Amino acid sequence: MPEIIPYEPDLDNASGGSLITIYPGNIHEYSLLFREKKMKKFSLLLIASALMISLLSCEKKQPVSEEAKNLVIYAYDSFVSEWGPGPKVIPLFEQKYGIKVEIKSPGDAGQVLSTAILEKDSPSADILIGIDNNMLSKAVDSGILSVYKSPELVKIDKTLVFDPTNHLTPYDYGYFSIIYNSSKISDPPESLEDLLKPEYEKSIILMDPRTSSPGLGFMLWTVRVFGDSFTDYWSKLSRNILTITDGWDSGYGLFVNGEAPMVLSYTTSPAYHMEYEESEQYKATIFKRGNYMQIEGAGIVENCRNRKSAELFIDFILSEDFQKEIPLTNWMFPVRDIKLPDSYSTALKPETGLLLDSKIINNNLDRWTDKWLETVNK
Amino acid sequence: MIKKPAELITLIPFLFILLAFYIPLFNLFATGVSFQDLKEFLSKEYYIRIFIFTLKQAFLSSLFSVIPAIAGGYILSHYSFRFKKIIKAVTAVPFVLPPILVVLGFVLLFGNNGLLNRMLMRLLSLDEPPLKILYSFRAIILAHVFFNFPLAVRLISSTWEKISVSVVEAARSLGAGRLRVFREAVLPQLLPSILASFSLIFILCFMSFSIILVLGGGPKNSTVEVEIYRLARINFNIPGACSLAVIQSAVSFIFLFIYTFFQKKNSNIIPANSMDCLSEKKATKISAVFITVFLILLFIIIILPMGVIIAESFKYKVSRGSETVFSLYWYKKSFSEIGFRPVRNSLFIASVNTLISVILALIAASYSSRNRSAIQLIIEVFFTMSLGVSSIILSLSYIKFMNDFSLKPVGWLPLVAAHTLAFLPFVFKSISIFYDKMDRTIIESAMSLGGSGKRIFFSIEIPMVKNGLFTGAVLAFALSMGEINATLMIAPENFITIPIAIYRLIGSYNFFQACAMGTILIVTSAVSFLVLDRAGTFEI
Amino acid sequence: MDYLNIKSIEKKYDDFNISVDLSIKKGEFFTILGPSGCGKTTLLRIIAGFIKPDSGRLILNNRDITDYQPKDRNISIVFQNFALFPNKNVYKNISFGPESKKWRKENIKSKVESLLSVINMEKFSKRKTDNLSGGEKQRVSLARAIAVEPEILLLDEPLSALDVSLRNTLRKEIREIHEKSGLTTIYVTHDQEEAMTLSDRICIMNNGTVEQVGKPEKLYSSPDTLFTAGFLGDSNIMNFDSRILYSRVKEKTEKSSGNIFFRPEHCRIMNGKDKISDYRNVFEGEIIKRSFYGSYYRIEALCGDNLITVYDYYPFSTEKKGKIIFSVEPENIILYS
User: Fold this and answer.
1) The pTM is what?
2) Residue B113: CB partners within 8 Å, gap ≥ 6?
3) Bridge partners of A301?
4) Mean pLDDT of chain B
5) Which residues of A touch B12 (CB under 8 A)?
6) Would the CB atoms of C101 and A9 count as touching at under 8 Å?
7) What ipTM does the predicted assembly reach?
8) Are strands C2-13 and C16-25 parallel, antiparallel or unpaired?
9) Which H, E and C letters describe B471-518, residue by residue?
């Protein structure tokens, strides 16, 4: 027989709490977790910390005050990257003017702009970096930028001042170019038409104008040269394209790994290989009718909170301190006429830089892109 | 009325998802989505073509991931062979790799100048690369299989292990042939897991982006996600992007529902008791051939693309024109430039994310399990819906939400919140599977024996879902290690993680260094999966 | 004195309602018997506290426990599928309850050890429960439930997952444990044999309501309702206007419709020597099936439209086929209107 051993409840350790509790009632429901009193503190702690994470991790923006002097800059990712100009030039500015800078990247240049557009009503950023000539009109029309004419502008070549309305101030520029592998191609193309040569079948890596700025630049290049018949050019070019990648990085990666002997990039690309690999294997091409240009600019955000500091920063990007860092970090030409690194001997400058009027781009881009898509999809 | 702290705790995961996902999303949609746009997207031929293509590639990718996974699932559940655990762990790694690394690995292996082509050219003395795999539709499928096959294999083999042998033997003894036994006794029990993995892979491929563009050979293969990108970041037509995203999410939602439904059904399979379970066999001669073929394919498609990245990271040319030698140069260079910061940050974010995700998912799954099955289905879809929303839209919704409510991200906490949001679905799933299998009467017994809620939760429930916690933790950890989109967007200043370093290195011409970083990521993930396999099973 | 009083407990579902009034005495072995879907398990879960009734009260030992949490009720339950804690060994399974109730360590130890000896499983103390056989699992489950010295022990079809011979052994053990411990036990089953052999009292449930409560013998011999009559044991139910050769029942009542009920063992089979006129309620039928049960034949015969079961005891008086004539004493016939 089971011996029934009487037990004496251990009163010291017994949990408190009355026996009668309201039972919430649901078929499968049972006593919920952590009902004991001593758990309450722990639970509240948990709730508090969870709320902190989900909500309070974002603190309320401080109202504009003297202390909130941090200059907030949005730039594309490769600008803020460890290998980009950001870490070099930002400390210089901070030191020079005693202004603390917060530089952030929401992604690529497109996302810099779309973030700023989303935040239009109460902007967080003071400065946008990386809006180029192709996005110019979109950016100006959206009304997120304000006018500022830097006194330093006189120091640069007038043809580079790509925004006559002065919403954007140029800080560097480059020329799109077909880069080729000289160990595979002895007779490089000299014009867009040359790219159609039958021996280049599946030899060119391009980028998609919908997702990449070199891709957009190259499409506009063909528009600039061929006008509305650019689609004829593309339909002939198709057989020579190996692939059209989503971004410059993956496309150039394919090229360096030997997937194709030609890739769309900038005339400055060979300078990188010269500087770090002492290699002249990769060469840029200059086309007879000129190469399409990219001019990158920075602008002050309309209604920003640190107008004064922002103006100082725009002046700063035209200073020699900033400009001399551009060639080896952003791999573009500086807008100031300063001495370039030796490796830039490989970075060719075409005689003609091609551009399209930004208004025309804005009005036609959608139509062109659709036509382009239709052509390459055939 | 909520009176008890315990009930408040169950609210936390719901509040979190609401705040981190639904409210920002609807906040964005409220300003953006218009009927006009929806109608236009659904009627324009161009978009219809894109929809059809997106569906087609997702369907075929899922199909080709699942079919070989049935064979793989059979082998993994029926045979034991050498290095099985390591092979299982390594094959799970692709699932957590950032797409850019996958593209790199594929190019290094299958490309015109890739390892396979160079080997074949030398062997057969050809001038032209013989394998034209990349830059075509089949490359997309292959890359998606690389990503998702591991998932399907795991899910199917773990179900197969539970199928009662006696049913199969009974069918055999009644004179049914092997094929018929499979069709009538095994397949019906296996089908829910097959369909569940199919629909999950479908959702993941449905949102695919860069793999499709780069490996597919260009814009003739473009998906809805690419169009959303174009609308949001090139045309700055955010309302349009939102409307398109609504359509995209609607499709994902359907498949999410199917997935959840079948996954729930899958858990209804009565697990065979230990005596009735499959015992792993040593391979016979015929099956050894079968296994070898499978392993070779696995090696080429899954392991080699990672192997070439690792190999690349040790290559270095001392000076111009010299031979490439084995060297740790790229690792040293990375550490001298950026130190241990990326590794440290990645480990830190991944650990915090893991801790929070597991706690939130555990609370949510525990709560869900106490409801009727119809409500459970709703809760599960509620927690996994974020899988079906475009990451471009998610990031826009974050930005808008922060801006509209004047919130400013501070430090790394918002980043952890974003990671938690992104991976909570996986963690939640892996835990809730175990809750689904749990016998409620065990909990009821404990209750009637006087066990307090706390004691039951910690000493009965948690041990019973222990494997799910482990799976969830490792998934959260590994996925978090590989995450790039959210990290790029909301990481605090100067906060660099391994995937960001990879992305930035590739963006600044440093391919070898990127491979070195990629190697660190691959090894960390493989080790976490190995630890997991030691601890228990892996199921999604 | 009522020990557990189930006072007008009601629970409504979409397609099913439960409405029960019951009282159970201290130390009683009380069985709830009914077909599947009759609501017996739901009632048990209401008693255990897993389901909250829509209305009504549960009074246990003069305490109203209706709103108590399951853990505060001091009612243990044993499930059909054992429901052992898979992560704990045999010892830890049994000690879970006493530990939850914060017993002293040494008391827990001696309690678990004595229970292990009661179920003859001293050697299994450190075993994982996965490796136990079904019968062993159910013994552990039983020991676990009584370890907390509950005020009521609930058993939810504890034997139906086991095979027949094991069922018989364990049935005896359950009864023994009950007798020795004097625990008030509520046992749910659909197996009438189990119910009759084990119980002090049986409650027959049907469609969410109580049909009849009583001692097994009483329920068997004089069922209150036609349902009870038909559910418990072999029984014969036929229309009042069936073909009856000679009946006193008919003389006694004025009714012309309704059903009559009698047990197969109360049928006296006539042989050639019997004079029909000496007997009342004589039936005639055609044998359609005759099966051997050792001490008797079970015969199914068609009397008019009714299928009737009759037991033919030794010395046997029926053939494999042919006519059968039998009589039933009036006191063994119950009339339901």
Assistant:
1) 0.79
2) A257, A258, A259, B129
3) A145
4) 83
5) 46-47, 50-51
6) yes
7) 0.82
8) antiparallel
9) HHHHHHHHHHHHCCHHHHHHCCCCCCCHHHHHHHHHHCCCHHHHHHHH
